[in-house]
Design brief:
The protein is of the alpha/beta class and 208 residues long. It is 23% helix and 31% strand. Bound molecules: glutamine.
Amino acid sequence: MLMANQKFRVGVLGLQGSVIEHIQALHELGATPVEVKLSKHLEDLDGLIIPGGESTTMYKLAHAFDVFEALKTFVHSGRAVYGSCAGMIMLADHILDGIEGQETLGGLDVTVRRNAFGRQVDSAASHVNPGEFGGDTPLPAVFIRAPWVESVGSKVQVLATWQQTPESSPRAVAVRQGSLLATSFHPEVTSDRRVHRYFLDMVADYVQ
Ligand code: GLN
């Protein structure tokens, strides 16, 4: 493992979505963000973030920019990858309520339901228990037409759950499987850096 203060080169998939926000979070934590649009931008990266946005557009653009297969190779390479919201959908092995033919990069043994929280939470600013993300205060969690994790494989760890209303069932909204991390919510649009810090610790652990 390398020293935590090393300047990791962390890519942010820059086709669409909350790209600037993730770049800003990485800057704040002393990492070196690299905007990824083409497969050559994935060279020499220590980790990668797939931002929130719109997964149906993202996978189409990834094909249009001819970067889809290279992204898939990266995700399965053992380096750390974090997907927020649409990024979670991109990392899921299985999706529900996708559009016809929608492909994902896969890697996370989960089934994710798109737009699962429904219209009431097209947008909701809430909090989740921070758990392994650390700290004593609730973690801000912004949901924007967010997916939830419907089921997880045996190697997947659920890091956070959220109850939309006191009557509704708790749903998994942050999961990890080895080098892959995904959240239904968008920490990049808040000023709380616990999720990004947790991810950079993963980068340190999985850098090759
Ligand atoms: N609903 C979007 C999708 O399916 C995700 C929304 C988001 O990333 N905020 O990709």
